[in-house]
Amino acid sequence: MSAGRAGELGGLLLLAALLAAVPLALDDFRQQLAAKYLCYAFPAVGLVLLWGYGGILSLGQGLYFGMGSYFMAMFLKLEAASQTNTGSALSQFYGSNLPDFMVWNSVEVLPWWWRPFHSLSFTVAAILVIPPLFAFLLAYANFRKRVGGVYFSIITLALAAIASIVIIGQQGYTGGVNGITDFKTFLGVDILSNGVKRVLYFVTVGVLLASVLVGRSLLASRTGKILVAIRDREDRVRFSGYNPATFKAFVFAVAALLASLGGAFFALQEGLASPSLVGIVPSIEMVIYAAVGGRLSLIGTVYGTLLVFSAKTFFSENFPEIWLYLLGTLFILVVMFLPTGLAGLVERVRWPHARTAKTPAAAPASGRPVMSEVEPPVEVRSGRPA
Fold it and tell me: How confident is the model at residue 364 (pLDDT cuts 50, 70, 90)?
């Protein structure tokens, strides 16, 4: 096993050990906060694949996070409504068990697109299929027309804003600005008890670590190498016979799937699906999590998410009047002094001479510099041949 792979494996094992120790070191309230933080690590891991290795900056990952949370919330709300309204006057009057917010908004019949969410199987399938399918079709349509860069980022940002506005406007069917809340059970199990919350925490940790492993396998595969090549020199990849739009749309769909998973776990952990999870602000914050952890490190971005949320909690509790300014200062300092995030800082500490090893040696008689063995023969970012 190479030193690089051994280091990655060691970092993953360390992360698993730290996350497993959280319930032992923290009280129930802090453990619940940690579970909430980890839900946001899912879209951050997806952004490492999408932005760090795919070169595609999405400012609308909150859209897919919101899809996952609303799909899970719809199932939980229908279960709660069934338990609350069975045999009640509401059930007899409307002929079905309606969520409370629909009753308050004079909705008399459960919408057709709500009805399949009575089934857990359909709910899980919707979480795993609909967001990545929508993301793939959206991305492929744009990348096929060579729409990329900042223009694609603006499109993703606009979609997140539109989704938030639509959710708020359709109050009778989505709960409006308050979202979907007040569900207490999952398949009859009380999800508000501390014991169940602890189980949900470990399930979240397990799925998150599995997502990191899948991401590492994807990057190590042929698809991952082509993706990096597209990021660095898309024109050369196209001339080699590949269709960059397909690969870029694929990684965009993978990032959407991870965001959807995070949203589903968020609805289970927090008992909430809200338009505040979908809009512009949470989407941009997800990019910040990836940037702080290191946009080229799947493990680092998990640490980055935990660090940002921990700082937000600490500043808001101890400096309630100025905590936003302190958090903004932290972001500025990270961008200025840690452009490669926490992962880059760790690499510099572990390999302090790595940068000097990449400097070109003395030029031979031909005038061309001889590169070190750790330097690739082609500087793919700038397109300069060695």
Answer: very low
pLDDT (tens digit per residue) in 163-219: 999 999 999 999 999 999 988 889 888 888 888 999 999 999 999 999 999 999 999
Say how many domains are in the chain: 1
Residue 3: predicted pLDDT = 54
Which residues have a Cβ under 8 Å from the Cβ of 245 and sit 6 or more positions away? Answer: 139, 140, 143, 144
- For residues 240 and 254, what is the distance between their CA atoms, to the nearest angstrom? 24
Q: Is residue 178 part of a domain?
A: yes
In this prediction the pTM is 0.86
- The reply to whether 383 falls in a domain is no
Between CA 231 and CA 55 the distance in angstroms is 5
Do the domain assignments include residue 249?
yes
- Is 365 part of a structural domain of the chain? no
97 and 191 Cβ atoms separated by less than 8 Å: no
The answer to whether the Cα torsion of 302, 307, 313, 316 is positive or negative is negative
As a whole number of Å, the CA-based R_g of the chain is 23
Strands 272-273 and 180-181: antiparallel
Q: Please give the full DSSP string across 266-300, using - where no structure is assigned.
A: HHHHHSEE-GGGTSHHHHHHHHHHHHHH-TT-HHH
Write out the residue range of the structural domain in which residue 65 sits.
2-350
Strands 384-385 and 189-190: unpaired
Nearest to 83 by CA among 99, 69, 95: 99
Query: Is the Cβ–Cβ distance between 301 and 259 less than 8 Å?
Result: no
Residue type, 362: A
Model pLDDT for residues 304-319, shown as the tens digit of each residue: 999 998 888 888 888 8
Contacts of 186 (CB under 8 A, 6+ apart): 76, 79, 268
